[in-house]
Amino acid sequence: MEILHCAILLAVLVQAQCEVAVEGLESVEVREGEEAILSCTTPSDILFCTFRSPTDETFTMKPGIPYEEGRIVYHGDDEKKQCGLKITNVKEKDNGEWKCLLTALLDGQAKKGEKAALITVAKPPSDIHIVVDGETTAAVIVNYPENKDRKVKCVAAGGRPAASFSWMLGEDQFSGPIEDLENTVNEDGTSTQAQVLTYESQPSHNGKQLTCIVNHKGYSEEQLSAQRNRVTLDLDVQFKPVDADKPQAFYNLAVGKEHVVLMSFRAHPRPSELHWAMHDGVKVSEGSESIDKRFEADILTDGPSDGMYTARLTIKSVNQEDAGTESNLVVTNELGTTKYPFTLSLGEKPAAAPAVSDSQENGGVPSPTEAGSGPVIAIVIVAIIIIVVIVVAVIARSQGMLCFADKNMGDDGEKSAAQFEALEKGEASPEKEPIKEPNDIKKEPEPTNENVPIKESVDEKEEKKSNGAHTPV
């Protein structure tokens, strides 16, 4: 038994040594009617180049030898180094695994090698549809807000390879929680796949379309232009009249004058009943007037935008008692009733109140923000002052200004005469005199030749004395 195992192992090794390495073959994905190229190579010289199709047909490729009326031809520049196949018009039957079979001359012997690749003929889904509550449908009714969340499944069947999905609401991209279901793959490589969107409705969505877009390379430009890759779901979002954020205020009423009150709201389906409940207990239904003829209600009209309605009440003569009162517009449809409060005022609309600081709101007590900002500002100011002083000191020192000026310098910037004289005699610089106030300094006249005393000799003194004793002639 051990001998048999060794023989099998030896045969495998010999077979492996006889194979030649095949390189360069890559899978491709194309649409039907397009061009596909498969090319393989080996370091050794190629003797024979053969391809086997998914239908088990064999094509020995050589320049100048076409197949199927030129639909399949050789591709390459050097048949000794390249084994290539070009399909000029891809058909459905070309989809699948292709094998490159090479025979090459290696070490003086013919050796074989092979490698496989896929040609995927992209095929768009043959059917796309939307499923809601287990049924294929093109429209859905949603009662808001009771069941505002709905599971919407988009199914794409018959495509190859797998597609991807995206969603739109009206003309805008729409995003929400999604779940991709497991694909079901058929024998021909096509698949059925689906994506489930958890759609959350809003009253403003009523009348719009939720669109599932199937993204797939197999679609032609004509199919995309015709939007064959899309399926839509019409949304019928039903809701009671939507509550107002706050009461509506009407100003500039004048006593004895007529005034018109207009109020708009959103509801679906259309309101079945509407009336005005006035502050004085008067009730005015649409299309009617009060018993005293003072109030008149028009028929409800559509607008000012899709899904909205406008009610109109005419007060034919405003009374003083109307001022500062609150009344209601009461609207009812199949899903409920909503009251819309409104107020009436004789004067003009008051101006918006100025903004109040935190300290004013807190009775003069500064807020934490204000309290904490004072020390910070003081620190910043002190830091700036210190920096300025340092800069001035550096400049003064470099220029010899202010307290850094040389005290031995005169007003004209030169040293005093006493200092020069001391320097000529080799003496040390004289002691500095104390600084006197400007008022104490008396400027002595500079000596001239006439005022400077001249040292006389003894003979000259005697001569003057003798001359002084003589009597003038």
Task: Describe the 3D structure.
The protein is built from 6 helices and 29 strands. Strands 9, 10, 12, 15, 16 and 17 form a 6-stranded antiparallel sheet that branches. It has a 5-stranded mixed sheet with strand order 1-8-7-3-4, with no helix packed on it. Strands 11-19-18-13-14 form a 5-stranded mixed sheet, with no helix packed on it. A hairpin with a 5-residue loop joins strand 16 and strand 17. The longest helix has 32 residues. The N and C termini lie far apart (178 Å). The N terminus and C terminus are likely disordered.
Short note summarizing the structure:
With 473 residues, the chain is of the alpha+beta class.
Topology (SSEs and partners):
Elements: H1 2-18, E1 28-31, E2 36-41, E3 45-52, E4 58-60, E5 72-74, E6 82-87, E7 96-106, E8 109-122, E9 127-132, E10 135-136, E11 139-143, E12 149-159, E13 164-169, E14 172-173, E15 178-180, E16 184-185, E17 191-200, E18 209-215, H2 221-225, E19 230-238, E20 248-250, E21 259-266, E22 273-277, E23 283-285, E24 288-289, E25 295-297, E26 301-302, E27 308-315, E28 325-333, E29 336-344, H3 358-361, H4 368-399, H5 417-424, H6 458-469
Parallel strand pairs: 1-8, 11-19, 20-29
Antiparallel strand pairs: 2-6, 3-4, 3-7, 5-6, 7-8, 9-10, 9-12, 12-17, 13-14, 13-18, 15-17, 16-17, 18-19, 21-27, 22-23, 22-28, 24-25, 25-27, 26-27, 28-29
